[in-house]
Known about the structure:
- The chain is α+β, with helices and mostly antiparallel strands.
- The chain has one domain (4-138): Archease, Possible Chaperone, Chain: A, domain 1 (3-Layer(bab) Sandwich).
- Helix content is 25%, strand content 42%.
- It contains two helices and eight strands; from the N terminus they run ββαβαβββββ.
- The strands form two sheets. Strands 1, 2, 6, 7 and 8 form a five-stranded antiparallel beta sheet that branches.
Amino acid sequence: MTRFEFFDHTADIGIIAYGRSLEEAFESAALAVFEVMTDTSKIEYKVEVEIEEIGSDLENLLYRWIESLLVYYDSDLLLFGKFKVSIDLNNMTLKGKAYGEKFNPEKHERRTVVKAMTYHEMLISQNDGTYILRFVVDI
């Protein structure tokens, strides 16, 4: 299964992430965001970051998850290439781990910096056992 794909969007980047579970789709979404910024296959898992979020709904939970990861890039230049997520739908909470390392210009390709997550065109759906997350990030 393809984990994610990009779609054209004026001045920003659209992402469609897939997963066999909601958690896997959230992990794919995070991977796609960091793939916009660098080649994630070059990221070593030297640092582990734990993230806990509470959302008002699934869209808000996705927004908070991606935005939290971007804060680590903005503040510490951390790039992530592996993620583990668990979601409690009853309490609308997310517990996640992100694995990666600090950006190194000699090792990591510098692509487009993602400035922020948005709600623009956000859609979370399920089709034939596949969860689909569609959203746009600001670049």
